[in-house]
């Protein structure tokens, strides 16, 4: 009987260790202080992003459809698809799909660099600066993608989009947008 209890205790300990492995890094694991996520949140972000990465195109198109639904004026910034006035036309547009995929790939690249914040900030700063070349673009437009992005992520993740995951994505998209704006604005001081 003692042997059976010992086996059960050992099996229970192994199960707890496996659960800890699945739940992310140890609690005492430190993250870069510039990252507003805990180690566990960063792990959750990267893990849940894999679900988005498998559906980049559809997630991006949905995000842009939501963006144009809420901010019709922004459609005018896109010469390749500004004539697409309906959701159906936008959903079927190859040009919109290409741009949406490009934006999602940018987000993907940024999120993949959360382990190296110097690269993360440099990359997003460069992307933000590149938007100065877009006629009529204003840095505050970056904020207009926040809600459509969160809606698209929620749609793609479905039941996996918990309150905790939502909080992690809100923190992450805010950090990304702030970095894009910083890049856009920093190029302003270089050219002045």
pLDDT under 50 segments (min length 5)? 16-22
Strand segment count: 0
So how many helices?
Answer: 8
Shape: globular
The topology string of helices and strands comes to HHHHHHHH
- Roughly how many Å is the radius of gyration? 21 Å
- Tell me the strand percentage band: under 5%
**Cα distance, first to last residue?**
81 Å
Helix content: 55-70%
Mean pLDDT: 87
| Class of secondary structure makeup | mainly alpha
Please describe the biggest sheet, giving its number of strands, its sense, and whether it closes into a barrel. none
Explain what the structure shows:
It is a single chain. Mean pLDDT is 87; it is low at 16-22. The protein has helices at 2-22, 39-53, 56-70, 87-91, 94-112, 117-130, 146-157, 163-191. The protein is 68% helix and 0% strand.
């Amino acid at each position: 009987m003692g042997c059976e209890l010992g086996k059960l205790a050992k099996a229970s300990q192994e199960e707890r260790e496996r659960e800890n492995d699945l739940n992310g890094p140890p609690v005492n694991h430190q993250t870069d202080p510039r990252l507003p996520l805990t180690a566990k949140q960063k792990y959750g972000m990267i893990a849940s992003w894999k679900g988005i990465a498998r559906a980049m195109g559809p997630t991006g198109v949905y995000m842009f459809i939501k963006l144009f639904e809420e901010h019709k004026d922004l459609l005018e910034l896109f010469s390749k698809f500004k004539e697409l006035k309906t959701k159906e036309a936008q959903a079927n547009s190859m040009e919109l799909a290409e741009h949406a995929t490009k934006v999602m790939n940018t987000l993907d690249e940024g999120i993949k660099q959360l382990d190296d914040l110097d690269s993360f900030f440099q990359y997003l700063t460069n992307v933000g600066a590149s938007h100065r070349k877009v006629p009529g673009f204003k840095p505050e437009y970056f904020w207009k993608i926040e809600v459509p992005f969160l809606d698209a992520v929620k749609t793609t993740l479905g039941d996996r989009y918990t309150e905790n995951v939502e909080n992690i994505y809100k923190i992450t998209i805010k950090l990304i947008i702030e970095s894009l704006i910083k890049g856009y604005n920093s190029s302003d001081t270089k050219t002045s």
